[in-house]
UniProtKB/TrEMBL annotation:
Transmembrane residue ranges: 20-38
Cell compartment(s), UniProt: Cell membrane
Entry-linked Gene3D superfamilies: Magnesium transport protein CorA, transmembrane region
UniProt keyword annotation of Flavoprotein present: no
Any GO molecular function: magnesium ion transmembrane transporter activity
Organism: marine sediment metagenome
Keyword match Transmembrane helix: yes
Protein name (Swiss-Prot/TrEMBL): Magnesium and cobalt transport protein CorA
Length: 42
């Protein structure tokens, strides 16, 4: 998971909106990959 990555600096721990930003980026990447694969017939 996300919190098992052992980074010393985790922006969402000190920034209130960081958690939502990280999840938003994850969702955008996953959606982009899904649409790419769908359009290329995978």
């Amino acid at each position: 998971g996300i919190y098992g990555m052992n980074f010393k600096i985790m922006p969402e721990l000190n920034w209130e909106e960081g958690y939502f930003l990280v999840w938003g980026v994850f969702i955008l990447i996953a959606g982009g990959l899904l649409s790419y694969f769908y359009k290329n017939g995978w």
